[in-house]
Every structure is written in C-alpha cells, then in structure tokens.
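[Automated response] Your request has been received and processed.

Submitted sequence:
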Amino acid sequence: MPTQTTPVIQPAAAPNGPSGLKPVEFVRLTKEIERKEFYRSLPEPRWWTGGGRKDPERGWIEIFKQSDWRCIYCSRDLTASTDALAESTEEHLVPRSLLDPNCVSATTAHNMAACCLGCNSLKGEYVPPATHPCWKSRKAYVKACKQFIAGRRLKNFVKYRDHIEGALKERAGQ
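Generated structure:
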C-alpha cells in the first residue's frame, strides 16, 4: 500500500485565500522501509526522545497530570465524566509505528500526553512531512497536529452534517 496523505491547514508565509492559510499534507507511512528512511531524514535534536520513560513509577497518572487532565489537542476536560476519562488515551505524539522500527523508545515523557479518544482516532499514525519545521520542537509539533485534527474534524462535519440534521429533525417530530 502506498504512502497515504491527508491535508491539514497550516499558516502560510503569504496570504493564500481569505483565511491566509494553505494546506499541508500529513503522511501515513505504511511500510517499515518508509518508516526507517523517514526517521533518518528527521532533524536533530529529536525532542521526542527526552524525559523519563513511562514505567511503574511514572505511569499514566503522571502523563495525565502533565497535561492537566486535558486532551493535548482539543483541551477537552478528561475528568468531566468517568466515561471521558475511561475513553481517553495515552497519546504517543510521534507514533509508535514510526519509532519502534527505528529502535527508539516511544514512551518517553516528551513523547507522551493525555488525549481524548476522538483526537487520537483522527490523528492515528499520520505525521507531518519530515521537512516540515514543526519537527524542531514539541510545541510546534503539537500545534501542527491540532491543525491536522481540526481539518479532519471539519471533513467529518461536512460529510455527516445532513445526516445529523435529518436525525435530529426526525426526533423532534419535524
């Protein structure tokens, strides 16, 4: 299966339409050789390798505290209900599917964050292109991922809006 790409909105250097934003493609690497080549092309220093590793002393509670019990991408309060917390995940910012084939630990503090199930599902294994400047810092990477997830949410909204409206009208007897 070839590499898959999905557009995400990123700030443009110059205005590009009414919003001043232009699409940037995220990629999903599907073959181990692609993952190894991609990883070799990433810039140093690699921020995702820093911090302590998750272990019995540093478990999921510390990861969630680090994120203030909020989704790192959409800021959803993961303590708003037991369902929200139970459905939340420990997000590997840089996906395991990229790090594992390169013998890099995916469970370092800098690479882990709390995440709601929706955002985790939307991001999946997608990553920005290796040449994208967001790879230089965790903050920039998270920002790019937020934009990518927002773009995927918008696509879902457009895809399902008529169905949702119809179901709500039917329930309301309209």
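Summary generated for your ticket: Residues 31-171 form one domain. Residues 67 and 78 are 10 Å apart (CA to CA).
If you did not submit this request, please reply to this message.
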